[in-house]
Structure formats: structure tokens, C-alpha cells
Automatic annotation (TrEMBL):
One of its GO terms (cellular component) is cytosol. The keyword Nucleotide-binding applies. Its EC number is 2.7.4.9. This is Thymidylate kinase. The gene is tmk. Residues 9-198 form the Thymidylate kinase-like domain. The keyword Thylakoid does not apply. Phosphorylation of dTMP to form dTDP in both de novo and salvage pathways of dTTP synthesis. Keywords: ATP-binding, Kinase, Nucleotide biosynthesis, Nucleotide-binding, Transferase. ATP binds at G10, P11, E12, G13, A14, G15, K16, T17. Gene3D superfamilies: P-loop containing nucleotide triphosphate hydrolases. Belongs to the thymidylate kinase family. PROSITE patterns: THYMIDYLATE_KINASE. CDD domains: TMPK.
Length: 212
């Protein structure tokens, strides 16, 4: 049986990485076979593409180039990591996937969500996530969190104006309306423990309904 593909989405600083790590451990303790990974990156070729996209010096990057690079990194990561693990029947928790491209490049950069969806269809075929946890937070609060985290390196996308990050959130709302059945909405403005407990309960419920 094919495994389960879960993605984590939301604006900067919403807590995706923190909660994904905690969920990975919790699901393993429940006896699930879980793989944690992230985009862009997760394998050497995609990590190299990540360096190019997020490098603060690459200010000349065109929006379509950016969208194509994310899609290329996605393809390589899917083929090398996600698809083999799903074929083994595992659960893949992936920090960001296609919805990030739709929200950031499609809506916030103004490329158009449908256009970006189409180039991503070429990259992913029918490998859409089975479920997506959306970490809902006010973009200003998310940016405050990453600014107060001294260990996190600031990247080219972080440096965009607040208006850009507001548009990212607006883009996510379009996407959630379009693929309602896939999304689990998480109120990410609460404490880490509260967010973790809600996401764990939602995920276990989803897995039980999926027959796992
Ligand atoms: N619920 C929370 N309350 C307060 N701080 C939090 C919460 N969740 C995460 N943080 C802190 O906010 C910062 C960003 O968290 P994290 O890296 O998990 O977010 P993210 O959504 O993965 O961000 P990005 O997409 O920008 O990488 C970290 O310093 C983390 O410890
Ligand atoms: C997958 C993907 C990501 N982005 C943006 C979102 C973030 O600003 C960075 C990734 O950094 P993180 O710390 O790992 O969250 O890239 C994007 O614009 N489009 C995408 O498809």
C-alpha cells in the first residue's frame, strides 16, 4: 500500500519546522514509520538549488526563474526521497511543498496561481499531498519570531517587505478555498505545546481515517 504524504505550510515563522520535528518523534513513538524532510532541499541537488534561490546576493533573480528553480528542486527531492519512501509504505512529513510555490510565486510575486500550478504539474505529476497542515499566523507575528531567533540565517525571501508576506497569507487563503478537503487548519498563534497537541490529535485522526 502507498504510504501517506503530509505537507506543512504557512508563512515565515509560523512554527512548521518546530512542530514537524515534534510530530515526527510522536508518530514514531506510536509505532509509525516516519520520514521528515523539507523543501527546497532534502537531497544534495535540491540543497544546491536552495542555496541559489535563497542567497541574499541574488537580487537580480527573475520571478519566473525563481518559480522554475523551486519546481526543479521539488522534482529532484520527490524522485530521490518522497516517492521511494511512499512506495515503502512510510509516512512522509514534508516542511513546505507545492502550496508554497502557489502562495509565494503564484500570488505574492504575481505570476498567477494557475500558471505556477501548471509548471508544478510538470514537476510532480499526480503526487499531490494526501493532507496539508496549514499553520495560520499573523505574518507580523511570524516575522517577529524569526527575527528574535538569533540562530536562524536571514534569507532573500525573509527580506521581502511586510506587504509581500501579507500577500503570501492572502495567496494561501485562495489555495485553501480551492483544495478545502486537503487542508487541516492550525491556529499557530498559541504556545508551542498547544499547537503541538492540536496538530498531533488532527494527524492521528487523519491517519486513523486513512486506515493506518
Ligand atoms: N508557537 C510558538 N510560539 C512562540 N515561538 C514559536 C512557536 N513556534 C515556533 N516558535 C519559534 O519561532 C521561530 C520560528 O519557528 P520555526 O522555524 O519552527 O518556523 P517555520 O514556520 O518553520 O519558519 P520558516 O518557514 O520561516 O523557516 C523559532 O525560533 C521557534 O522556536
Ligand atoms: C518551497 C518553497 C519555499 N519558498 C520560500 C519560503 C521561504 O521563504 C523559503 C524557504 O525557507 P524555509 O526557512 O525553509 O521555510 O522559500 C517559496 O517561495 N516557494 C516554494 O515553493
Amino acid at each position: 500500500m502507498r504510504g501517506i504524504f503530509i505537507t506543512m505550510e504557512g508563512p515565515e515563522g509560523a512554527g512548521k519546522t518546530t512542530i514537524t520535528q515534534m510530530l515526527g518523534k510522536a508518530l514514531q513513538q506510536e509505532g509509525y514509520q516516519v520520514l521528515l524532510t523539507r523543501e527546497p532541499g532534502g537531497v544534495p541537488i535540491s540543497e544546491q538549488i536552495r542555496e541559489v534561490i535563497l542567497n541574499k546576493d541574488n537580487t537580480a533573480m527573475d520571478s519566473r526563474t525563481e518559480a522554475l528553480l523551486y519546481a526543479a528542486a521539488r522534482r529532484q527531492h520527490l524522485v530521490e526521497v518522497v516517492m521511494p519512501e511512499l512506495e515503502r509504505g512510510g509516512i512522509v512529513l514534508c516542511d513546505r511543498f507545492i502550496d508554497s510555490s502557489l502562495a509565494y510565486q503564484g500570488h505574492a510575486r504575481g505570476l498567477d496561481i494557475e500558471e505556477v500550478y501548471n509548471i508544478n504539474k510538470f514537476a510532480i505529476g499526480d503526487m499531490m499531498p494526501d493532507a496539508t497542515l496549514f499553520f495560520d499566523i499573523d505574518p507580523e507575528e511570524g516575522l517577529r519570531r524569526i527575527q528574535s531567533n538569533g540562530e536562524r540565517e536571514v534569507n532573500r525571501l525573509d527580506l521581502e517587505a511586510l506587504d509581500f508576506h501579507k500577500k503570501v497569507c492572502e495567496g494561501y487563503q485562495f489555495i485553501i478555498n480551492r483544495w478545502k478537503e486537503r487542508f487541516i487548519i492550525v491556529d499557530a498563534g498559541r504556545t508551542i505545546d498547544e499547537v503541538f497537541e492540536q496538530t498531533k490529535a488532527s494527524l492521528l485522526d487523519f491517519l486513523a481515517k486513512a486506515g493506518n
